[in-house]
Predict the 3D structure of the following.
Amino acid sequence: MGEIAKSDMASRHEQIISLVKRRGFVSIGRLAKSFDVSEQTVRRDLKDLADRGLVTKYHGGAGLAHGPADVDYDKRKARMPEEKQRIAEAVAERIPERATVFIDIGTTMEAIAEALLDHKRLTVVTNHVTVATILSRRSEFQVVLAGGILKHNDHATTGDATREFLEKFRVGYGIFGIGGIDGEGEMLDFDFRDIGVSATAMRISRKRFVALDHSKYDTNAVVSVGHVGEIDALFTDAPPPQALTKVLKTNDVDLVIC
């Protein structure tokens, strides 16, 4: 390979990484068109970048390299159990009896499901397999589990099938866990595959609660799932940074410190 060709490839690789970080996912066809190269060339580029751990290859394109979201689920569940319990109890207090609820994926959502077991006659829609299992202990609960592609590292379903399934519902309350939140109020996550599911779940929920512990204020999650201005309340265990607190106040978001 000549020096010019090597230089072109290195530049293309840098731009591919930049696009993946901005968009969360880019297709092979889009990359081929953007760089005016063949799809075969793009596939070679993606294989090289994936082999170096810089992106993750998926069918038809590439996404972000694996990050904290891929840490063993049991290890994530064991982090900050007391903080998650306090958050869960505060969220549960805001859910009335006989409510219709969507519960998102994540280890904090498990704690919330446990805290809801004392409620009466809830109808819960979820794509979190473990949450559905917890709530199934109450025979008077109606639990609706969304189908889709199973994400083993999250015990959850995702993908177009999950999104299309959720579109059929309308719930009074949506409870969401996210990968992080920045000082401008941008809600972030690690996996681009969950964006469509999260956006749909937000749309079908009349009131939207986000629950996160203080570690999520300092995160390297990069996929945007929305802005705090779209939610009604943020539940957390410690005061957010000053910039975020100001954004929450400006957007009239109820901040609940547990």
Observations:
- The chain has a mean pLDDT of 88.
- The CA atoms of residues 107 and 170 lie 24 Å apart.
- The radius of gyration is 20 Å.
- The first strand starts at residue 25 and ends at 27.
